[in-house]
Amino acid sequence: MARLGFALEAGSHLYPEPHSKSSSSAHRTLALFFLVGGLVLFVICLIFLILLWRYVKPRDIIKKLHPKKVASKTALNFAVNQDFFSGNLRTISYFSYQTLKKATKNFHPAYQLGRGGFGPVYKGKLGDGRTIAVKKLLLDKSQQGESEFLAEVRMITSIQHKNLVRLIGCCSDGPERLLVYEYMKNRSLDLIVYGKIDQFLDWNTRFQIILGIARGLQYLHEDSHLRIIHRDIKASNILLDEKFQPKIGDFGLARFFPEDESYLSTNFAGTLGYTAPEYAIRGELSEKADIYSFGVLVLEIISCRKNTDLSLPSEMQYLPEYAWKLYERSSILELVDAKLMKEGFVEKDVVHAIHIAFLCLQAYPNLRPPMSEIVAMLTCKMELVATPTKPAFLDRKRRKDDNISWETITEAFPSMSDSPATIQPHK
Ligand SMILES: Nc1ncnc2c1ncn2[C@@H]1O[C@H](COP(=O)(O)OP(=O)(O)OP(=O)(O)O)[C@@H](O)[C@H]1O
Ligand SMILES: [Mg+2]
Fold first, then answer.
1. Are residues 100 and 219 in the same domain?
2. Cβ-contact 298, 355 below 8 angstroms
3. Which terminus of the chain, N or C, has less C-beta within 10 A?
């Protein structure tokens, strides 16, 4: 009976009398209380999470908890965590050395695409069928630790544009540092322009390449969240996809190497003909150095020859000098590659592109137009009004001549700080 009594009592709670007004209003108040309370709690939690996401970095928390444990082994995990917090996770892949070794058949020489100043580049195939280009960096281990390397990789990966080669990921394993890029089917522009392979490009394709490079550089200099000076714009760093759309490669790589040495390295000397005199001689680096190299590249694309060719008759050896001579003689079209001459091209457009190249090659860095103006001029959104002044270029014979000191050469070239206001246009 006692049990039944309990059941009845409990039942009376479960099924309250429908006509009990005070009881139902009490329930309503209780429900409202939980609803409002729940909502307030939810908003507080949301604000807390937003603040946490915005101001607290996972690396800081771990550093505080285990100050001594922040070692290279865990750096990779930090990197992944940070990428998760910054929303970059989907853009970076971390490869094991074994994976890349397998993809490149143990870095077999037959898979080597080339070798530049940063190290050899191999073609590889991943297990999922993707073709990649793997750059094995020749870094002195003491120069950069794993976490710094990963930070640089993340920085480069965050810079994306259709005219920049995409960095898919990296590998950091003991002393090994490797970068994994998308593979570009038509390799690099130097192979075509310097005649290493038999591939003809018509004027439309060449113009698309010039415009694409200009757009890629504009992004690096002006539109990206970081200001990047490439420092090594040249034909081998322009990669071409299956449709011959250009993509600039190797941007940001200079960051892996000590600042003060890069511009005077042996590798650098190899590409002297692309280098702006103020950078080569004084180490004055700015976007204007890339703009100068772009000017050299445009002339190379139009003429299909190297910027410096000492096997040619002396007046033709230095491309900017030779082009200027032809321009002064009003016979600039003689610069155009013989094959292109044969196939035909739009004369006005080629002259327009050469004019822009001359603007980029001017001795006074301040006179060279910014990349956004170059893009506007190429796409005819901006009129070409400026008259170029005589190009500056480095003469290899002078560098070899021991009787001429660096100081003597320096005097011949204006500095970044020199005002172009005092100069006289040549034409
Ligand atoms: N992503 C890629 N896809 C296809 N080929 C590539 C790729 N990256 C590089 N290559 C090839 O590998 C060659 C070597 O490239 P690398 O960048 O190491 O040397 P470089 O451009 O001649 O000199 P630098 O070290 O000054 O850039 C290039 O000329 C190019 O043909
Ligand atoms: Mg390169």
1. no
2. no
3. N
